[in-house]
What we know:
This protein is of the alpha+beta class. The protein is 47% helix and 25% strand.
Amino acid sequence: MNHKRHSIVLAALISCGALLSGEAIAADHACTGLDTNLTDARKHEYATLVASSMTVKIKPSTVSLMNFMTSGSWSAVYASTPESDPGFFFFQTVNGQKQFKEVWGGFAVPEDRPELIKWARALGAPENLATCFAHTVIG
C-alpha cells in the first residue's frame, strides 16, 4: 500500500471512529440524570422479568442483559434470550410491582430518533427515559 493511499484509509478510519464516538457521547449525554447502573441485583431481577415476559418458557439464567435505564416508575433493559433477537424491554412499576409493557427490537438510524422517542412516550415512558432509549438504540 503506498503512503498516500494509507493516509486516506487512516483518515477515513479516524473519521469513522470520531462519528462513532460522537454517537456514544450523545447517548451518554441523553441519559444524564438517569440511573443506568446495571448492578448484579438488577441483572438477577430483570433477567427474571424478561424471562417471564416471553411467550415461550425460558430460564432467567439464559437471559443476557446489556443496558439498563430507569426514571421514576419506568425502566428499560436491553436483553437477549436464546429465543429472541435482542430488544429493549420496558417495565412500569404499579403498586410496587414491575409490569412488562412492551419490547422494541430492530435496527434504527439517527433519522429514526424522533419516532423512537414518540413510540416510547406513547407507552407512557417519561420523556427522559424515552430520549435515553432512542439515543442508546442508535448510539
